[in-house]
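Look over this entry.
=====
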Amino acid sequence: MSESMDCGPLLEGVFAVVKPSNVSTPQVLLDLQAIFVGSTTFAPLLADTRRKRAEQESHQPPNQKIKNEEADGRYFKMGHGGTLDPIASGVLIIGIGRGTKQLSTFLGSTKTYETTVVFGMSTDSYDIDGQVTGNAPAGHITDELVKDMLIKFRGPFKQTPPLYSALKINGVKALEYAKNGKEVPRELEAREVHVEQCELVQFLEIAAEDFRRLHDMPRSALLPAAVIKLVVSSGFYVRSFANELGIVCGSLATMATLHRSRQANFIISDAAEAPGLSQAVMYDDLKAGEEAWSPLVAQALHRWMNLNPTRNSQDKWFIGEGMDAAPRQRFRGEWQASTKKDRIKQQGGKFKGKYNQRTKQEDEE
């Protein structure tokens, strides 16, 4: 009996966690690797992963250097279905094992965000963590003005991604040019995005002293801010939206907070009990221990595995067994020939190269 069978069911698939702010997406993956490797929930998958790696290594040439994935903290095959900036929090879709092959389908899914936009200033990264690039009067901005301007962002339109993004220019991430102070070879192209919902949740004033980057403004200064809910398509950048909103409102603006409350069928709330929705695992539960996170993670993975069953020995069409038993086809009233040579002759075709010369010799004989 295999090690995976001894430990229990092998769980793999897709689930979601609630990423906290100030933690990068790659760090979340490393945290999950460290948490899962010592758990009983993923012991079968760990054993299976190690077995497959050992098989792959046994087929490698003796002089080829093999990378030690576990030394880098990567025990499982794992990835995400759409990154979140370090400043952002919320739903982060995770694929583990076979689930990683399905992650690309989530990149194009609809997402729901709630963001806080601060008016009166702009930054190079379009968020509050960037360097201040300008200040502008914002006393004229009201909730009514913001509501009127939000109408401009509903539906389809062209949006230019921020320079601080992972989009590549000549094979290099755009943000790398910005961080290193290098000139960008070309501008990022605007692309089509779609906004299903764009509404003002709250209009408020924020003290400048609440943000460490506003050192050049009076600590007592109050800046108008808007909390906005967005339901958007893939490829939409909330930071670009914040920057553009400031401009259309006759001022400047930057993104102060960002929270993704939903992506595809993963959500943060008790509403996950509704059909078709899955609840994301809170990060505090991941840190609290296996008893806290295992039930919710296992539930999501069982659901995924039921929808994506593994191929077994009965699935002959998938694994190639029994292909010689495929029914023969007919050609012009007779059974199609069984060999390539005979099929070509049967259909009146001609042979090429040495195959043609050999056939001619056979016909002359």
